[in-house]
Design brief:
Elements lengths: L10 H27 L5 H25 L10 H31 L4 E3 L2 E4 L16 H36 L3 H5 L6
Antiparallel strand pairs: 1-2
Helix pairs in contact: 1-2, 2-3, 3-4
Bound molecules: protoporphyrin IX containing FE (2 copies).
Length: 187
């Protein structure tokens, strides 16, 4: 697999960026909808897609570890470089921690973990209350829930900064940062 170089990002980098990025934004939206409307029908979909995303996000993290970050284009100031790098770290860590915290919340809560109907972890039904479950660990489930909620809000802030940065590169600095992430080679 060709590595990233300053002129061109490898097709794996481009594919994983948009696959993970778009799916992540959809899951954020579905999660907020679930929270706001109690849409129980969306839970299994949210969880299954979230667990699949963990696999792609883990591959991406390994790929970044081996390949390094994309080299900044244009003449960004030191502050811009540091901010972009910090946001990239937040984003890539968040794509792994959001699914993990969700799994901790659901698994620890006794709801089990089901990947499109395939039980990765069985639910723990309450024999005395049909339809209810008994948590495996109330405290771990609580930590998962807390991380999932705080993490979601931090990620929304990071994504906003990230997209503003991408648009600034494209429309104000008029450099090739955005088109490079679309797989094109800057002239
Ligand atoms: C990248 C993956 C994921 C993202 C971005 C994400 C995002 C979110 C967001 C933003 C919420 C609303 C939280 C709130 O406002 O309190 C939420 C709720 C929830 N998520 Fe996720 N999630 C992901 C993966 C998962 C996974 C893998 C699971 C479980 C296996 C999961 C289980 C849940 C549950 C059970 C809720 C509802 C919590 C409640 O009703 O209080 N999520 N998610
Ligand atoms: C839909 C709006 C988005 C746009 C327009 C966008 C654009 C970009 C661009 C242009 C770069 C290259 C930066 C450089 O060359 O230094 C980049 C890198 C990156 N983006 Fe996004 N992005 C978006 C959404 C996301 C989301 C939702 C995430 C994560 C949840 C994300 C995570 C990353 C990461 C970690 C990098 C560093 C390089 C890599 O690992 O692929 N992006 N993005």
């Amino acid at each position: 697999m060709m590595k990233d170089n300053p002129q061109r990002l490898s097709s794996l980098s481009v594919l994983l960026h948009w696959l993970v990025g778009i799916t992540f934004i959809l899951l954020l939206s579905v999660g907020i909808l679930m929270e706001e409307t109690d849409a129980l029908a969306l839970y299994p979909l949210h969880k299954s897609v979230g667990m699949l995303l963990l696999a792609a996000a883990a591959v991406r993290m390994l790929w970044r570890a081996g390949n390094g970050w994309p080299v900044p284009l244009g003449q960004p100031g030191a502050m811009a470089v540091v901010t972009a790098r910090a946001v990239h770290w937040m984003l890539i860590i968040g794509t792994v921690l959001m699914p993990l915290s969700g799994m901790l919340m659901s698994g620890g809560g006794g709801h089990g973990l089901s990947l499109f109907g395939l039980d990765l972890l069985a639910a723990n039904p309450d024999p005395l209350n049909p339809g209810e479950v008994i948590p495996l660990s109330r405290s771990l489930a609580g930590v998962g829930h807390e991380l999932h909620e705080i993490g979601g809000n931090l990620m929304i802030a990071a994504i906003l900064l990230h997209v503003i940065g991408a648009l600034k590169h494209h429309f104000i600095d008029r450099d090739a940062t955005l088109t490079r992430m679309l797989g094109r080679t800057p002239r």
